[in-house]
Amino acid sequence: MIKTIVDKNDQGVRLDQYLFQKNPDYSRSYFSHLIKSKLVSVNDRVKKSSYHVEVGDRIEFELIEKPALSPIEGEDIPLDIIFENDDVVVVNKPAGLVVHPAAGNYTGTLANALAYKFPKIKDAIHNEGSEFSKSRPGLVHRLDKDTSGVLIVAKNTKAMIFLSNQIKDRKVNKKYLAICAGWPKTERGKLVNHLGRDSKNRKSYTDVGKDKGREAISRFKVLNYYKTLTGSRVSLIEFIIETGRTHQIRTQAKIAGFPVIGDNVYLTKESKLISNQLGVKRQMLHAKELTILVPSQTKSQNFTAPVPTDFLKTVSQLVSQD
User: Fold this and answer.
1) For burial by CB atoms within 10 Å, which of 87, 163, 236, 312 has the most?
2) DSSP state string for 216-248
3) Residue 67 — very low, low, confident or very high, per pLDDT cuts 50/70/90?
């Protein structure tokens, strides 16, 4: 049985939509089926899919597990370890490496590599009875496949809860670097959107409004303004995220008018043209810093991941305007 408590950010969201947002590897229709099958309860009562959740609602549900979501198997995949102790391991994830098994990527993931290197990490799960939890042991946050950078993993359940609570309470500082098409109208700014699945493309997210979406907050600062050799505007931007929504920076950057170059999902004609001109093969987004309190420590620690070669190569092709 999986249990969750509705917080203020999800106030008013439909029950099937709420469950879908919390478990993006399953479809909304899948949860509608669970609700109709009376496998979901709200405060110990069965509700319809159209029920709008309230702050403090206690939701419990049973997942009819997908065959692909099985206990993780260790695989001998190299890891770039930044920091390690008895409770956590911090890694520098390379672009191209999927974080955990999901549709289309059942093996060869970071989770498989961690299970091989640290066999006991398989016990760091939220729910003993869920194959879903067992497929992603120790993971308290994620990075997209083609996003590089720093990521912290819990080695045991106690550490997992400790880290997860900090992320939930927004006590973690995450900084990203991105190379974006265009110049933002201001050097600094704050992006606020309510993100949800795009009805026209389920693999992407967009602003679906306060009633349907989850609040996403990012702050940005332009570090440098550039132009390509053909005169197209490009900017190097630092993002600090206050919330951790799926595809958050990529989605918000496109909505704001300066999409991340190399992004094949959140793109514009301009960003695609620049990406092709520079020979960019993946979204130029790098998680450069993570500041978080590690279990048994009294002060937060700052972990950094060096900027990858392909990112630096892309910047080297640009002409600074400062």
Assistant:
1) 163
2) EEEEEEEEEEEE-TT--EEEEEEEEESS--TTH
3) very low
Written as one letter, the residue type at 234 is: V
**DSSP calls for 134-161:** HTSTTBSS---TT-EEEEEEESSHHHHH
Query: How far is residue 106's CA from residue 54's CA, in Å, rounded to a whole number?
Result: 35
**Over the stretch 230-247, which tens digit does the pLDDT of each residue have?**
999 999 999 999 998 989
Can you tell me the distance from the alpha carbon of 11 to that of 215, in angstroms, rounded to the nearest whole number? 11
Question: Which residue, 292, 53, 253, is CA-closest to 170?
Answer: 292
CATH code 3.30.2350.10 for 173-320: yes
What is d(CA 25, CA 39) in angstroms, rounded to the nearest whole number? 18
Q: What is the pTM of this model?
A: 0.79
**Where are the CATH 3.10.290.10 domain residues in the chain?**
2-61
Query: Which residues are the active-site residues?
Result: 144
The type of residue at 106 is Y
Q: What is the pLDDT of residues 2-40, one digit of tens each?
A: 888 998 888 899 999 899 888 776 767 778 878 887 889
Lowest mean pLDDT across 26-35, 217-226, 265-274: 26-35
- Concatenated DSSP letters of 4-71: EE--GGGTT-BHHHHHHHH-TTS-HHHHHHHHHTT-EEETTB---TTPBP-TT-EEEE-----TT---
Q: How many helices (H) and strands (E) does the chain have?
A: 8, 14
What CA dihedral angle connects 291, 169, 21 and 144, to 10 degrees? 0
Residues of the chain within CATH 3.30.2350.10 domain(s) are 81-168, 173-320
Considering the domain 81-168 in this protein, what is its CATH number?
3.30.2350.10
- Cβ-contact 64, 31 below 8 angstroms: no
Least reliable range by pLDDT among 69-83, 209-223, 255-269? 69-83
CATH level 3 topology of 2-61: 3.10.290
Residues paired with 83 in a beta bridge: 90
